[in-house]
Structure formats: structure tokens, C-alpha cells
Amino acid sequence: MTSSKVKNIPLPADSARAAAYARFIPREELNSFAAWNPGALGGGPAAPTAVSRGPAEAPKPDPAELLAAQLRAARQSGYQDGYRDGLVALEGFKQSFASQTTAQIGVLLQSLTTGISGLQQDMARTLAVCATHLARQIVRTELATEPARIAMVAHEALDTLLLSAQHITLRVHPDDHALVAQGAAEVLAARGARLLSDVSMTRGGCLVESDIGVIDASIETRWRRAAASLGNDEPWEPLADPAQPDIDS
Questions:
Q1: Is pTM, for the whole model, over 0.90?
Q2: Once rounded to an integer, what is the mean pLDDT over residues 21-41?
């Protein structure tokens, strides 16, 4: 057998392109195709498989689920907003309540303090009046039961006067003249004082006059000083009738 040697001669350009197309067909030139199924060899119908030429579309969400999700989101947002607003309102209420309570307590304490202060003043005033009335009754009683005490008052008034004083005059009530003349005779003589009766003087008091001044030891002046020490300014009220009981209103 004679063998022939086949020369390797390149194909023309058009022949090479035709051979390439014989081996591979570009996808762009295919409109549709179906994959080969081995079952087609048995004569059965081949199930064509369509190949999508574009990207797969995402499934559309269920409107009911979307609405439920939106409701849950709205409910959560509303809860957070309501909780925040509630905290703000609670804080504002606490501050307002604290301010109102503090103001009310302050007013109550101020009113209580004012009431207590007024009560204390009333009690002090009442006590001073009672003490003044009691002291006046005691003085009246002593003047009535121990009239000789006027001699001690006159003696003290003359001793208060400076030794350099001259032209000394001691004025007393006419009913006290004899008591002073007897009880203060020594000091009257030592000071060279004259003893005079004066109806304008109240019993129990005296008035010393001299060239350098006057010493008022009247019962009214001494009472005013005593009442002032008790925080009262009630004047002396002599008993109109010594025989009547001393009753102060």
C-alpha cells in the first residue's frame, strides 16, 4: 500500500474562520437553545430547559408582611417617643411639685413664726400689765399701812443732793409733814433744809429744791421708773378712797 504524505498547508483566512465556527458558536448568535437530555436517546420527548438571558428577578415582598413590619416600626417609635416625653413630663412635675411644696412650707413657717412672735408679745404685755397692777397694789398697801416710810424717802432724797447745795427746801404732802419732821429730823438739821407742806404732792413722795437743782422723789416719778423696768408705761393712779378695797381692772 502506498502511503501518501499529507502536506501541512495552512488554510486560507476564510477557511480558518469557518473551521473556528465549526468548533465554537458564540452565545450572541444564538437566540435560544435547550440543554441535551440523555433521555432523548430513548425516543422520549425532550424537556426543553429555557435559559434566561438576563439576571434573575428578586421575589416581590408580601404586602401584608410589609404592612406588619411598618406597623411594628411605627409602634416601637411611638413607644420610645412616648417614654421620652413621659420622663420629661415627670421631671417637670417633680420640680414644680417641689417648688410649690417649698413655697407652701415657707409660707406656713413664716405664718407660724409670726403667730408665735405675736403670742409672745401679747403674753409679755399681759404679764407686764399684771405685774404693774400687782406692784401698784403693793405700794398702795404699804403707803396705807406704813406711812412712816415717807421719812426714809425724804432721807434718801436729801442724801442724794450734793453737799455744796444751799437753800434746800423739802416739800411733802400735809399728811406726811409730821412723819417726815420726826423721822428725818437729823438730816434736815444737818443740811439746813426747810420742811414745807404742799397739797399738790401725793402722799408717799417728796420734792427737794435747792440752788443747784431739783430732786424729784414724788410717788408718780418713782412709779414711772418702776413701771418702765417692767416694760409698761401705765401711770400712777392714787387710791381715791383709802377705805375702799384696791381693785384694778
A1: no
A2: 58
